[in-house]
């Protein structure tokens, strides 16, 4: 049998909190037939080893700031949310970037443009971390009456 190889790019994925990080890694790297195949080194593993970096996840969360057709999440509201909900869950650090997004409203078909905040977290990919990320998403949606918060999670190598 040939070894399984992965492309250099990783697909966007939705992490299932019930999977252990080891099971998740096994599933992502080789799929269900992993027990029968000899895994080849992945591009990510090679990069981690080359730079003496640790395997982590990068989570990007995209927070729209409109409520209805107007900005409903002020800079003050965002700062309070960040300081009160996000930073206590991820005290080791994070990055926030201002963005300008647009999306198609599925109910009206109208293109909606709005300012946004893009939050980038580098963290362990364990189930507890994934629960914390889900809490942030749910809290934001509830507090600011949002239909969704976009979430992208990918495995990365991190060195500080």
What is this structure's SSE topology?
Elements: H1 21-30, H2 43-50, E1 54-64, E2 66-67, E3 70-71, H3 75-89, E4 95-104, E5 111-123, H4 127-143, E6 150-158
Antiparallel strand pairs: 1-5, 1-6, 2-3, 4-5
Helix pairs in contact: 3-4
Please tag this protein with its features.
alpha+beta; globular; Alpha-Beta Plaits; two-stranded antiparallel ribbon; 4 helices
Question: How would you describe the overall organization of this protein?
Answer:
By secondary structure, the chain is an alpha+beta fold. Helices cover 31% and strands 29% of the residues. The strands form 2 sheets. It has a 4-stranded antiparallel sheet with strand order 4-5-1-6. A hairpin with a 6-residue loop joins strand 4 (95-104) and strand 5. Helix 3 packs antiparallel against helix 4. The chain is globular, with a radius of gyration of 18 Å.
In percent, how much strand structure appears in the residues? 25-35%
> Counting H and I runs of at least 4 residues, what is the number of helices?
4
What CATH calls the topology of the domain at 56-158 is Alpha-Beta Plaits
CATH domain class of the domain at 56-158: Alpha Beta
Q: Which CATH architecture of the domain at 56-158?
A: 2-Layer Sandwich
Give the neighbour order of strands across the main sheet.
4-5-1-6
Low-confidence stretches: 1-38
Question: Would you list the SSEs in sequence order as H and E?
Answer: HHEEEHEEHE
Q: What is the residue-mean pLDDT, rounded to a whole number? A: 79
Indicate the structural class.
alpha+beta
């Amino acid at each position: 049998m040939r070894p399984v190889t992965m492309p250099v790019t990783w697909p966007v994925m939705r992490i299932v909190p019930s999977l252990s990080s080891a099971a998740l890694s096994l599933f992502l790297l080789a799929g269900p037939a992993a027990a029968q195949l000899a895994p080849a080194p992945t591009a990510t593993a090679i990069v981690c080893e080359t730079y003496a970096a640790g395997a982590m996840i990068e989570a990007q969360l995209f927070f729209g700031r409109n409520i209805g057709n107007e900005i409903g999440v002020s800079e003050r509201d965002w700062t309070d949310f960040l300081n009160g909900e996000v930073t206590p869950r991820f005290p080791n650090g994070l990055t926030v970037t201002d963005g300008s997004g647009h999306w198609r409203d599925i109910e009206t078909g109208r293109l909606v443009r709005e300012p946004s905040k893009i939050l980038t977290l580098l963290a362990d990919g364990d189930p507890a971390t994934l629960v914390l990320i889900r809490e942030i998403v749910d809290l934001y949606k509830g507090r600011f009456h949002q239909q969704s918060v976009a979430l992208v999670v990918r495995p990365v190598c991190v060195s500080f």
